[in-house]
Amino acid sequence: MKQKAINGWVKTISVPTPSLQNNTADAERVLAALKPALATGNVSIDLDLLRILPGLIRTAGNEFNCVLSCRNDHWTVIDMAPVSDPAPVGAAIDLGTSRVVLQLVNLVSGDVLAESSFDNPQYTIGPDILARIHYAAEPGGLAALQALIVDSLNGELAGLCQSCGFEPDAVLLTAVAGNTAMTHLFMGLDPQWIIREPYIPVVNRPDLLKAADLGLKLNPRTRVFIFPNIGSYFGGDLIAGILYAGLHNQEETSIMVDVGTNAEVVLGNRNWLIACAGAAGPALEGGVTKMGMLAGPGVIDQVQRVPGSTKLRVSTIDDLPPVGICGSGVIDLAAALFMSGRLDIRGKLVPEKCAGRIRYEAELAHFVLVNGEDSGTGRDLTISQADLDSLIRSKAAMYTILETISQSVGTALSDLASFYVAGTFGSFINPRAAISIGMLPDLPLTAYQSLGNSSLGGTIHYLKHAACLAEIDSIRDSITYLELNVNQDFMNRFSAAKFLPHTNAGLFPSVVREES
Amino acid sequence: MKQKAINGWVKTISVPTPSLQNNTADAERVLAALKPALATGNVSIDLDLLRILPGLIRTAGNEFNCVLSCRNDHWTVIDMAPVSDPAPVGAAIDLGTSRVVLQLVNLVSGDVLAESSFDNPQYTIGPDILARIHYAAEPGGLAALQALIVDSLNGELAGLCQSCGFEPDAVLLTAVAGNTAMTHLFMGLDPQWIIREPYIPVVNRPDLLKAADLGLKLNPRTRVFIFPNIGSYFGGDLIAGILYAGLHNQEETSIMVDVGTNAEVVLGNRNWLIACAGAAGPALEGGVTKMGMLAGPGVIDQVQRVPGSTKLRVSTIDDLPPVGICGSGVIDLAAALFMSGRLDIRGKLVPEKCAGRIRYEAELAHFVLVNGEDSGTGRDLTISQADLDSLIRSKAAMYTILETISQSVGTALSDLASFYVAGTFGSFINPRAAISIGMLPDLPLTAYQSLGNSSLGGTIHYLKHAACLAEIDSIRDSITYLELNVNQDFMNRFSAAKFLPHTNAGLFPSVVREES
Q1: A51–B contact, CB cutoff 8 A
Q2: What angle do helix axes B129-136 and B141-164 make, rounded to 10 degrees?
Q3: How far apart are the first and last CA of chain A?
Q4: Are B317 and B424 in contact (CB under 8 A)?
Q5: Residues of A in contact with B205 (CB under 8 A)
Q6: In this predicted structure, what is the pLDDT of residue A212?
Q7: Continuous segment of H or E residues that includes residue B58
């Protein structure tokens, strides 16, 4: 996350004029000029660039910006242009299962030039990755899924370039991060073994690819870097996130949590990294990210207690009359109800404390958050005991995962220096509320840092810092993947975490209820 | 030249079945299995191969032949097939200015499967390379020249494959050697700066290329290795020749001479290599390789003296009545005439010794080799004093080059362990005759070794020995290129070499004329 001076993929060189004394080939004179900038002689020049090189270096002066790519310690010059030409461009792509986000970056200055996002068009095949993987196994299915994402990327990239006033062939480097299944579909690789025991991707560490080989309509010389995965459940989006957070560079132990389609956790420091994901995720997914509705106009994203009152104040997106509630709002609400004694330590509504705001439907208690006359729908906005039970399971699963991974390396959650929360979850969640219900550990609020889209952040980082290539390999190679076994220990911890904030209240000293 | 056991580009591996304990990706399990065979982990798998990999390793057993390519210390798996499948194939191509020669090789056994050759179709644009380079500078010219050679290679390769009973996509590796201009035209690289001072190729060391990027219709995964050049006048065909001769591996100093379109000489041993080419070539080209006619049916390729007689016995190709004489025949004839006193030490015909076989046309003496009644044309076959003068200039140029290069490193020609003669010149020339006229140094005949098509030999060597990649780079990097300056010293040596066998007869102790 820390801003560094850009030391990226563009190197400026001066190409010496040939003479009878220095009559090495054009290519070799360019490579010799690059050698000091790269500290290696392991460089070659793209064939298509060789085809225009003699004319270029004889007509366009001596000073050039070279755009390079690198893989396996070998560099390739993919573009050369006079330093006076417009800067070359990179495209950063976060390939999400639901949403795809793109940014264009000036490869010389590192400035972000434009951003856009769109719904993953594979959604029409199946909203979740499982449905898509099954579809990929049908005849023509994989090709259709690949075409969907590639075509929409082509359209989006063309539009973004046009908005910046250049052609798509100005884009010379592309960095892509996504979960393992998404990157497989993007590369046209058969994903079916990802979801069958023993859960095997086709590839962990994709080679550097040519955009044209993937069907991307950029420069024929454009290279595409795809962040490596660790396995079926731990994708390149997470590696990109770790790179972006800088977890792997810090002396103190920190944790990163990403709740997207899946819940993934990475714990570590500059000496070691341990990660887990997935197995305990469904409760969390079904709870936090799917409960209520997605964030949108009129959706309640924050709930606060009015000091000295039992009243609750809701905030909605765009300040419109409330029409529903999203995940962060549910966590806020549960925290507010618990802290004021209207939810007991088992997460059950306490009718006698709710002062007429309880309503029963088919014997199921509902808490009325907003009355019909104040809502944007004309109907009461409520949260049911079933919704709350689901939240309790989710928060217990989350805390259990955090506890399990930290106990596996002998670290106490209370010792963590930083707690990075990635993604939409991280952007909207109120750590104070999440601590109150025991979803997140009781750390000082200053330890919590929201990363935003850390997967996109990692791809941007790649485009700006050539040296991070080695870091990415090192992150991938150093991560220990912890298989979460849902065994008796895990279930015991899960049961203990199903209380508010926890069976062991001593773990949450800052959570003190007004009324208990 | 020495046969080694094949240790080539095909490695046999056993791919472990995935399990929950070893759940790395398919690609990574293949790469791990390859690591011991390659002694490096720097390997990746071609994207197109990744696309079929999961099915392959789950349906075709565990034992596979992997075809690899390598460049810059990074290996790429380009094909995998069950060991029971037919062996993968390599194509070796000698890209000559006049003639192109191809062989198909079994990449597992190293056996040559088929060979063919065809006239370089760029001949229709210009018989010599200069005309083609000028044509390449015209609009569309370069593309047309490239298409000519690529199209004819495609046709020839398809035919050769058909004759062997497989499809062109069985060809997975291709090795190409040619002079610098020819390889530039093959790659579609602008050759115009090759012939303009300071004589600069576009590239010395081409990258490993995909056949498809060159327009070759082989397997989409086929890689093409193009032998590197040292400069405009010293091409990859010569590097291939050195590799084939093994000059760079020998303790004793040897020399290799290749007279093709150009005359090129390499001198050296395992510690150093020095080369020169071109500048003194035209006389030799015009003389030895173009005098008379090209070898063909009825052409005199050998002339021998009948012992104890002044009669000459001619041998013709296919034993047909003689219709002309080719280079090796001219050298034999000149040697026979000189050894029998019919040519003086200046190379002039001695009429009084020629016993009625001299005829004058426009005051120019002609020696009648075959009478009209014995020839295949019905006319006398003669050689004129002008032809002989041209031969003398050629042989003097050749000897001067050999002397100049060996003197430059303080080696006496008489100290050479081996004298390799490459190409058609080497296949047909009679070293004894060439020594007699002072064209080649007076070494024991056992020192002379004919290499045949050493450029093709080098490409075959590449296909059979993966380790030679480092040797090729090392040959290229270690050669000192000697610019032949036609200065006073050179001219003095040239003048001295214009006598038969030489002004300093002490250099040729074995040449003792019957009559002097």
Answers
A1: yes
A2: 120
A3: 41
A4: no
A5: 27-28, 44
A6: 96
A7: helix B53-59
Q: How far is CA B298 from CA A488, B302, B377, B380, in A?
A: 95, 11, 10, 14
Residue B41 at interface with chain A, using a CB cutoff of 8 Å? no
Which B-chain residues 67-86 have CB contacts (< 8 A) with chain A?
71-74, 76
Cis peptide before A501 (omega within 30 of 0): yes
Query: What pLDDT, on the 0 to 100 scale, is given for residue B284?
Result: 42
Contact A26 B200 (CB under 8 A): yes
Identify the segments of chain A with pLDDT beneath 70.
1-5, 260-262, 278-294, 515-516
Sequence letter at residue A148:
L
A252/A273 Cα distance (integer angstroms): 12
Candidates A23, A234, A484, partner chain B, best to mutate (most B CBs within 10 A): A23
Structure tokens of A429? 């969640």
Reported ipTM? 0.89
| Residue reference for tokens 């200055």 | A109
Bond from prior residue into B18 cis (ω within 30 degrees of 0): no
Query: For residue A141, what pLDDT is reported?
Result: 97
Strand order of the β-sheet with B312-316 is: B312-316, B299-305, B324-325
Closest of B74, B19, B88, B11 to residue B46, by C-alpha? B74
DSSP A317: G
- B74-82 vs B63-71, strand pairing mode: antiparallel
* Pairwise CA distance, residues A18 & A382, whole Å: 79
Q: How does strand A273-277 pair with strand A263-268? A: antiparallel
Residues of A in contact with B203 (CB under 8 A): 25-28, 45, 50
Distance (Å) of CA A89 to CA A108, A157, A430: 8, 12, 37
Both tokens assigned to B19? 């399990």
Structure token digits, residue A181: 């299944």
The tokens of A219 are what? 């420069």
Residue with tokens 């106009």: A297
Residues above pLDDT 70, as percent of chain B? 95
Percent of chain A with pLDDT over 70: 95
Please state, in angstroms and as integers, the Cα–Cα distance from residue A115 to each residue in A176, A426, A477, A514, following that order: 15, 20, 31, 46
> A147-172 in b/e burial notation, b at 16+ Cβ within 10 A?
ebbbebbbebbeebbeeeebebbbbb
Q: Quick one: chain B helix, strand, coil %, rounded to 5?
A: 40, 25, 35
Q: CA dihedral in degrees (A193, A197, A200, A201; nearest 10)?
A: 50
Interface check A151 vs B, CB under 8 A = no
Whether A290 and A261 have beta carbons less than 8 Å apart is answered as no
Mark yes or no for CB contact A25/B202 under 8 Å: yes
Q: How far apart, in whole angstroms, are the C-alpha atoms of residue B303 and residue A155?
A: 75
If you average pLDDT over residues B13-28, what whole number do you get?
A: 92
Q: Rounded to an integer, what distance in angstroms lies between the CA atom of residue A277 and that of residue A262? A: 7
